[in-house]
Design brief:
With about 475 residues, the protein is mainly alpha-helical. The protein contains 14 helices and 7 strands. Helix content is about 60%, strand content about 5%. The strands form 3 sheets. The chain has a 3-stranded antiparallel beta sheet. A two-stranded antiparallel ribbon has the order 1-2. Helix 1 packs antiparallel against helix 2, helix 8 crosses helix 13 and helix 11 runs antiparallel to helix 14. The C terminus is likely disordered.
Amino acid sequence: MMEKGMMLLTMTVSLKFMKPTCINGVCNKASSSQIAFFYSALYAIAIGAGGTKPNISTFGADQFDDFDPQEKKLKVSFFNWWMFSSFLGALFATICLVYIQENLGWGLGYGIPTVGLLLSLFIFYLGTPLYRHKVRKTKSPARDLIQVPIAAFRNRKLPLPNDPSELHEFEQQHYIDSGKRQVHHTLVFRCLDKAAIKNINTSASSPPCTVTQVEGTKLVLGMIMIWLVTLIPSTIWAQINTLFVKQGTTLDRSLGSNFKIPAASLGSFVTLSMLLSVPMYDRWFVPFMRKKTGNPRGITLLQRLGIGFVIQVTAIAIAYAVEVRRMHVIRLHHSMGPKEIVPMSIFWLLPQYVLIGIADVFNAIGLLEFFYDQSPEDMQSLGTTFFTSGIGVGNFLNSFLVTMVDKITGRGGGKSWIGNNLNDCHLDYYYGFLLIVSTLNLGAFVWASSRFIYKKEIIKVNEGEEKTLDTSPLGLQV
């Protein structure tokens, strides 16, 4: 679908009858059919990306065998290098493709990624016979998410047994025959355990849920809890392409006598810092911490997220300090006009860009790996959907916050914190507000992660033999 969308988009900017006619640089309004064709291309790309992004990383991780020590070691690095390739593509797009579009034409600018997509699709099909295809062991994996709460509500008045072994669970032979992974009982969300109570009044047509089914639902609830405290960091990340750029347009962007740095180009430093940090993290930090902690990942998944969020809070603190400095320079030189350039170099913004890039190596990659790793069996694509949806919700929250803060602070003729004229507003107050919110959210993350219990699975191979998957310590503990 993405390939079709890109082909349609390339046609839209290449074929004469698909573009509005222009005379002496003045273009006519696009016709209804041209607009419809253009939006059809965009929606095709969006639908294709929606089907690809939540599954491609999951499919890649599924190529590794959790029970093969060598492959499991390689799997630890998979998400780091998968995101590294994504960052590399993003850097190529922001530097090379943007230049081609502006100087050589939009048709060529869109044509190159279209050819790239077709080539990647061809390579994907060539490798199809070599891929490991994970067999779904459950007809409807998401059914438990509905069945377990309903069963728990139905048994709400029944007492829970003191011994978890008295709850309903299949015999070991069932897991041996089916190849499913049994999930150990945990003490979180105890109310859901009532779904597995062996009730003598239960009919054969609606037997109680198993402990493994209940634990799968608990895992999803735990991921939702972590997902909620990652929305603010996603909102902070959205500042890169919004207020940071707007802030940069007010600063001195001169580099030499004849060249001015585009304000949006500083965003490439986020990608560059990511590209430099990923190899350092994977080849130096992980082996170093592995020796210290004994954890195959070096640190736990939630510890990785916590470090990323701390770095991100530091980046916002620096952004606040730089904005305070910018406001001081404005008052000093009376540069309050909407188009006046503040005599302060744009490179003052560089540290916050670099730190956010480094933070993303910890929290963006860590989130992707966390949601994949902690998802119930047969539901890993749901985990990566948590990751992508968090980014989307973060962008919506950013737009909502900017709009509401602008309306509230500008009410009654007051000076808006985020006005059209950044030289005569209080953007420093807004950054201070984000710093407070992100700090409080960091505390909420520590609280949520301390109560999260990592998944612990056992697979029965045959009678008398079992393999246990490696599990991480609880929460943020070392």
